[in-house]
Amino acid sequence: MAERFYIKGGTPLKGEVSIGGAKNSVLKLMAAALLVKGSTKIYNVPELTDVDIMLKVIAQLGAKIDYNKEEKSVVIDATELTSVTATYELVSKMRASFVVLGALVSRCKEANVAMPGGCAIGERRVDFHIKGLEALGAKIKIENGYVIAKANKLIGSDIYLDIPSVGATENIMLASVLAEGSTRIQNAAQEPEIVDLANFLNTMGADVNGAGTSEIIINGVKPEHLHSIEYTTIPDRIEAGTYMTAIIATKGKGIIRNVYPAHLTFFTNKLLKMGANIKLLDPTSMEVSCKNRLNSINFITQPYPGFPTDLQSMAMALLSTANGVGIITESLYENRFMQVPDLNRMGADIHQDRNHAIIKGVKKLSGTTLTASDLRAGASLVVAALMADGESVVEKIHHIDRGYENFESKIRLLGGKIERRVEDSQINLTEGVHNESYL
Q1: Which of 15, 136, 174, 279 gets the highest tally of CB atoms within 10 A of its CB?
Q2: Per the residue annotation, which of 66, 68, 89, 119 is the catalytic one?
Q3: Verdict on whether the full-model pTM lies above 0.85
Q4: How far apart are CA 209 and CA 193, in angstroms?
């Protein structure tokens, strides 16, 4: 049995949608909760498969979990940890769980964490994580697919990252919280999720400065300085950008609630340049609309505050029917154009040359059967299906469920015609579709 989205395109999205907690933040906050010998309560926790996996990783280490899906909160009681091993069976399902390495080394002075393995969108090396922990005094070896780290004592150090890796920045931050002296991370990642982690740690009693800039300084504190807290996760900027794109793609008009507009400045500016209308209603709400055909643009994905790679595929869907020719250069991941073959099957005119995609806008896309290859590519195919003529079926939507809470429900709230079905593996797009209520 498989789950699929059935989508009828061509309906402008209208109404309001509220954005949930940031997936890429809450996963790291849960790992950071391991530093405290006590309970931590996190609010604005989205109901995602990635969240479920991270909670299983943390429970495997001995922490007690109370996940309240109705309240969208989780309590993590890490008073006693019974294990320092995060197994391959779980870590291999979600790379972000590798961040428990820094927390375990910091608190327990040892950790056995499975190497996360491959990633659909390209190589994501962990050598920056390892070099950072070694600079703090950890002894690390890799055996049987596990990173085995031990440290009698962690001592603050100056660490320069060759690239502003988000995961490496987070792991080093977590490992430095209880180290002796000060740690300086240069060329650190500047994403809002890094700032959220720093705020979380500081609320807990840590001393982290400079998050959101290229230089972060962590002054180590003693374990007894850390204490239980309650904390609310920031909104998910990628989810917000996805719904902005869907509304614009369908020539609709909608309001995005519970969003931090400053987290999307670069992306928003590109949408405005294409011809979309975006208006700030209040500090956490935006009105998004589009009436006319968009104009093509060029852009390069870059680390924050540049154009987010996680929204590149959504922007490509917009460019597929825009006036003129647009060029996207993907500078971060080598396999981040996995949506291209499916978009071309819908009638798009996209030519890929290594890390460049040249998109010649066509008048319209046509519905067909599509396959989600990864989280963001899958979401972009849903956007494309909503803007296309006719019906589409999106397969392998478990990828999308990793990062979008109640995706089809929120789209339906905006008037989109989408339905999730559980069926046998074989489908016939033309049979049994036209009588469905969602159409």
Answers
A1: 174
A2: 119
A3: yes
A4: 15
